Amino acid sequence: MIAPPWLLSLPVIFPLILGVFTLLIPAHTLKQAGKTGAVATAVTTLPCLQWVWQAGPLHQTLGGWGAPLGIDLYLDGLSCLFLLFAALTGLGISFYATEYFPRSAEGHRSRTDLFWPLWFVTWGGINSLFLTLDLFNIYVTLELISIAGTGLILIAGTRGAIRAALQYQMQALIAGLVYLLGVGLVYNALGTLDLQLIAAELTPSPMILTGLALMVTGLIIKAALFPVHFWLPPAHADAPAPVSAVLSGLVVTVAYVIVFRLWFAGFHTIAPNLVPRLMGVLGAVGIVWGGILALRQERLKRVLAYSTVSQVGYLFLVFSLTLDSPAAEGLVWAGTVYMAVAHGLAKSAAFLAAGCLQKTEGSDTLTALRGAALRQPAAVIVLALASINLIGLPPSTGFIGKWMLLKASFYTRQWGIAFVILGGGLLAAAYLFRVFEVLMNPPDRAAAPDTAKPPLPLSRGILFPAMLLALATLIPVLYITAPEELLRIGAPVSFSRFITPGAAQ
Amino acid sequence: MLYASFLFDLILSIALVVLGMITLQQKTPREAVVQLMIFGLLVALSWIRIDAPDLALTEAAIGSGVTGALLLAALRRLGLNQRFPDPAPAAIRLPVTLGCAALGFLLSVILIQSWDEPAGLTDIVYQNIEFSGSANPVTAVILNFRAFDTLLEIGVLLVAALSVYTLSGPAGGTPVRPPGPIFNLYLRWMTPVFWLVTLYMVWIGGRAPGGAFQAGALLSGLGALTLLGPSPWPMRLRRRVVRWGLTLGFGLFLFAAAWLWRYGNLLTYPQNHAKTWILIIEIACTLSIGISLTVMFAGCAGWLHEDPEAAA
Fold first, then answer.
1. Do A117 and B162 touch (CB under 8 A)?
2. pLDDT for the residue A485
3. Do B166 and A111 touch (CB under 8 A)?
4. Total domains, chain B
5. Is the pLDDT reported for residue A479 higher than 80?
6. Chain A positions in Cβ-Cβ contact with residue B243 (cut-off 8 Å)
7. Does residue B285 sit within a domain?
8. Spatial CA neighbour of A75 closest among A179, A190, A251, A196
9. Residue of B125, B131, B148 to mutate when probing chain A, most A C-beta within 10 A
10. Cα B191 from Cα B195, distance rounded (Å)
11. What sections of B79-180 are H helices per DSSP?
12. How far apart are CA A421 and CA A60, in angstroms?
């Protein structure tokens, strides 16, 4: 069977074309184009799924040159799962955005119309990052999505958003340069930029080790691991809601997935043990630190942004957990993927719901949202469904992932990490219940006599996509074997034990 | 002879470090920008020293010229005589300085210690260059071997120009001081020369240092000069026209990518026609790069308004 030449590049090129298209068409047709385009972009990932399911991993050479001269794309179960994840999240965000941004008058383009070109270009970049094998290409694509991200934050047009965008751009610049410096060293030492060729020749020489360290450092800044997370809360909290969902649900995940892929492609074979230990410790500290700060925020979107800092911490435990016990390797690896997907879906849904609350109540401060559950029950239900994942309660994907990590940490006797995983869940429960306590209590009439605001008209269907994203996190519970088998295709780790919770006892 | 060139490199390296420090020490942003432009020229000189004339051209045009113009335009809008706000506290500056110094030291030690002839891809590039449609190895890499990178890079420029667009404020930026007769005469005489050199730059990129990025930067120089001149006609263009101009390069590149799927994987040029495809893409990209950078210049100077289409 020969793969069609467009198979892997279509999910990248198609959204980019849509980016150009939505920039040029008349403004009043944008919403229709946004919806149709999002569905079509999501559909472009399906041939990839079909191929990987039937024929296994696929390698395609762009321009017909092949590494090391050209750039290669590579599809395996992991990248396919994340392509589907981006498709689902992107679909939800796009449908939400068509209702969230005000409709433009005919013949006049407003600032918010730029959401569509910037968002489709970001989507294409995200898909590209899941597929590319080329270290320099990763740099170019990261630049593309971080500059598009800056533009997306700026759409809000507020003073706070401009400051947040500047900060976001600064971190992106620094992180990008640090990563690029690392790529330069690795290229200098090995003479190739292709990940698979590099993985075959890795030796622990000072130049390669420094290069890898710089690359990982740059990516860690972009993934907002503690203590380089400082840029994230303002950027994610001050952007418009659909943009917060893109940045917190997708962009952070992408940066993390690159570290994850580089690490298991071969970095783990030469890195001194100190490195994974350090990443694990920083992850653990991040879980607690992000959680404590989330507990102290006075704005809903800030709570969610600090929650991202905390949740990203879990994803970095994998490096120290796989260190000690190869037998639990597959368990931890898959558990982390589940955590990443669950967090991406749940956090997008939560930000979309928060955006609704912010619009209807006029503000997202917790005092303004008091009693909002009475007025906006649907938004609060979406928030609750997302919270189940963030806390890690059954029957969510977040629970499955956390359960696998917990089991592995018992298995490898890393009691400290087990303690942090459990404590982090409690902390998440604390900062989210604090929000729900406010949302569900009726307004205190004595303290605030005139809290009755005229509700802003929001289209009835606006929360439907957010609800869908939140519900999607429950799919694996119903049908765990499919994502698991997908993940096994071309996986770099061995699944010596069956990884479904409960089956290994 | 060897000795002389070693001495030159040594002076250049020291000058770079010293100039970098001087730039950081400036009291006002304007002085710092001017120092930065000089710094960019010295960096361009060092690219020449390591036999990378393409990079040197780009560095001089974009790293020094365009960046400097953008920064000065932005400063003009903010008030030229501003001083830097109070320096960051030593608790921040010290660790940053030490961190950078440590990284620099580490890199120097590693590069000096384990330096043997870098593996690189030079040989394999020269083996394949005859099939690439370009006799200039740099153009062959940028527009054929790694055309996917360049496609995304052109996308970066478009997105950056769009981000500047999102910031465009209400009408009424700082009025431009009327230019003198000498400037007007210069502009009138130089406009065709700029166009000629731009086109030459694109064309020569197929054989010698040159190409879309350098040519586009040059074109944006003309764009900025025109904006400063007596008849800033690009300002009066409809936004729709500007948008088409901005997307021309990226759009055509994407179209080529989709069209070429019939010949193989992404951006596989048909045999014997690679040169034509590369030239068409390069010309479109040159125009778009020129327009993007001009839009950024206008945006930095506060001349982008939210009006035209509604008015037109």
1. yes
2. 85
3. yes
4. 1
5. no
6. 23-24
7. yes
8. A196
9. B148
10. 6
11. 90-113, 122-128, 137-140, 147-166
12. 39
Range A101-137 burial, b when 16+ CB lie within 10 A, else e: beebeeeebebbbbbbbbbbbbbbbbbbbbbbbbbbb
* pLDDT the model gives residue B178: 65
pLDDT score of A14: 96
Q: Which residue range(s) make up the domain with B245?
A: 121-312
Q: What pTM, to 2 d.p., does this model score?
A: 0.93
Q: Long-range contacts: B74-78, Cβ < 8 Å, 24+?
A: B74/B300, B74/B301, B75/B29, B75/B30, B75/B33, B76/B174, B76/B301, B77/B173, B77/B174, B77/B300, B77/B301, B77/B302
Range 393-432 of A in CB contact (< 8 A) with B: none
Both tokens assigned to B66: 């365009």
What digits encode the pLDDT tens for the residues A308-362?
Answer: 999 999 999 999 888 877 778 888 899 999 999 999 999 999 999 999 999 888 8
DSSP structure string for B38-88: HHHHHHHHHHHHTT-HHHHHHIIIIIIIIHHHHHHHHHHHH-TT--PPPPP
Which residues does chain A have within 8 Å of residue B167's beta carbon, measured at their own beta carbons?
A: 154, 162
For residue B131, is it within any domain?
yes
State how far the Cα of A438 lies from the Cα of B139, in Å rounded to an integer: 61
Pick from A2, A6, A159 the residue to mutate for testing the B interface (most B CBs within 10 Å).
A6
pLDDT on residue B309: 44
For chain A, domain boundaries: 10-488
Is the bond into A395 cis (omega within 30 degrees of 0)?
yes
Amino acid at A352: L
Residue A449 has pLDDT above 70, yes or no: no
Closest alpha carbon within chain A to B268: A63
Nearest to B145 among A5, A19, A69 (CB): A69
B309 closest CB neighbour out of A108, A144, A154: A108
Judged by CB atoms closer than 8 Å, whether chains meet at A64 and B264 is answered as yes
- Give me the pLDDT at residue A452, please: 53
Here the tokens at position B94 are 């010290």
Provide the residue count of chain B.
312
Q: How far, in Å, CA of A107 to CA of A84, rounded?
A: 36
**Amino acid sitting at position A117:** P
Which tokens go with B238? 């409809």
Q: What is the pLDDT of residues B211-258, one digit of tens each?
A: 888 899 999 999 988 888 887 777 777 778 888 999 999 999 999 998
Is residue B175 a part of any domain in this protein?
A: yes
Highest mean pLDDT among A400-414, A447-461, B110-124, B162-176: A400-414
Instruction: Show residues of chain B in contact with A192, CB under 8 Å.
Output: 119, 121
Which residues of chain A lie closer than 8 angstroms to B145, CB-CB? 63, 65, 69-70
Contact B247 A69 (CB under 8 A): no
The per-residue pLDDT for range B106-124, each reduced to its tens digit, is 998 988 887 666 667 888 8
